[in-house]
Design a protein that fits this description.
- The protein is an alpha/beta fold.
- It has one domain: TIM Barrel (Alpha-Beta Barrel).
- Helix content is 46%, strand content 15%.
- It has 10 helices and 8 strands.
- An 8-stranded parallel β-barrel has the order 1-2-3-4-5-6-7-8, surrounded by 5 helices.
- Strand 4, helix 4 and strand 5 form a beta-alpha-beta unit.
- The longest helix has 21 residues.
- It is globular.
- About 3% of the residues have low confidence.
Length: 281
């Protein structure tokens, strides 16, 4: 069966030699699935700039489609232009444009630029060369006041020239479909791909979710607490939960899935096989 959906994997640049080897191994295992593209994150304030660029070029040189994350944060135009030129000259054709976070302790400094301004800037400098992804928030960005303002800012990004969006992760499918309905009502018809986070560790999941505003349903928290230090049961439970979530999303019309891999091939590969995504392209 073919449904023309996009299935992609997000990686983050490694900071140590050991982490670099783990990243390489995960990337090779994930590449077997021939994803629509890999994306690679860009640290707060450009803190992983060179590592991101090197990881992106490695992926591209291995023959895989890749979408580097890019943000202004406290970067100057020269650095952003240099990255755009490097990626364009390499033949990379997709970007993820984000407002970006400031490094810890630098709040209020630098030249914070909103994502719609970055999208406009990329279009001004490179025309239609890049397919531009932007971020979307089904459960509302932590700094937004309401659904209305959050969707208004998403529409600004599309009006500036973005092609599609990837969402923050979530565990309530209803939040995604409600969000899509609200987007359509506000004239947004570009693809909005749900972001999918594997469940493998409660403390890490709580920390990530508190930071990004993602809701962890009480029943998921309670079941993971009941498993305590039984890692195998937590991973098995997480695979079941995320497989069911993904199936609901695909059956009800989501345009694809974007997996936040955390630089681990498992359990993503198990979820992929559970969904039979090799035959749903």
């Amino acid at each position: 069966m073919s449904d023309n959906k996009l299935y992609s994997f997000e990686l983050f640049p490694a900071r140590t030699a050991q982490a670099e080897e783990s990243l390489r191994q995960a990337r090779l295992e994930l590449a077997v699935k021939n994803p629509s593209f890999f994306s690679c994150t860009y640290g707060a304030g450009g803190s992983t700039r060179d590592k991101t660029m090197n990881t992106v070029l490695d992926i591209h040189n291995d023959g895989q489609a890749v979408a580097p994350h890019l943000s202004f944060s406290n970067e100057d135009e020269g650095i952003v232009n240099e990255l755009l030129s490097t990626y364009k000259e390499a033949g990379i054709t997709r970007l993820v444009a984000l407002r970006g976070d400031m490094p810890s302790g630098m709040g209020g400094l630098g030249g914070m630029v909103y994502a719609n301004e970055l999208v406009s800037y990329i279009r001004e400098k490179t025309g239609d060369h890049f397919h531009i992804e932007v971020a979307a928030y089904p459960e509302i960005h932590p700094q937004s006041n309401s659904y209305e303002t959050d969707i208004f800012y998403l529409k600004q990004k599309f009006d500036a020239g973005a092609n599609s969006a990837i969402t923050q992760y979530f565990f309530n499918p209803e939040s995604y479909f409600h969000y899509i309905d609200r987007c359509h009502a506000n004239g947004i018809d570009q693809p909005i791909v749900p972001g999918i986070m594997p469940i493998t560790n409660l403390s890490n999941l709580v920390r990530f979710s508190d930071a990004c505003g993602a809701d962890i349903p009480r029943w998921i928290r309670k079941q993971m607490e009941a498993y305590a230090d039984d890692t195998d049961s937590i991973v098995k439970f997480g695979v079941e939960v995320i497989t069911k979530l993904c199936e609901q999303l695909l059956e009800q019309g989501a345009p694809g899935l974007h997996f936040y891999t955390m630089n681990r091939a498992e359990p993503i590969l198990t979820i992929w096989d559970n969904l039979d995504l090799d035959n749903r392209r």
